[in-house]
Amino acid sequence: MGLECDAANEEFVRQHVAYQYGALKSKTAMMEGRLQDISELVRTKNPSLLLQIQKTAVHPGEMGSKR
User: Fold this and answer.
1) Region of 61 on the Ramachandran plot (φ > 0 left; ψ -120 to 50 alpha; else beta)
2) Predicted TM-score of the model (pTM)
3) Could you read off the pLDDT of 21-37 as tens digits, one per residue?
4) In a 3-state reduction of DSSP, which class is residue 60?
5) How far apart are CA 19 and CA 13, in angstroms?
6) Which of 12, 13, 31, 60 has the fewest CB atoms within 10 Å of its CB?
7) pLDDT, tens digit, for every residue of 41-55?
8) Phi/psi class of residue 58: alpha, beta or left (left: φ > 0; alpha: ψ in -120 to 50)?
């Protein structure tokens, strides 16, 4: 038993990649906005907690080195 597949045309692939990129970019912007809102709330309610969180935060690209 098998599944036959044809290659998608280049324009379809280009549109799909552009859509997925746009969706991820939009989601990232939304999450960054939420993080900014939460950070501002913590800054006003408990500034020392925000400093502690910022000290221990793992930045992208450093995930493997913080152990």
Assistant:
1) left
2) 0.63
3) 999 999 999 999 999 99
4) coil
5) 10
6) 60
7) 999 999 999 888 888
8) beta
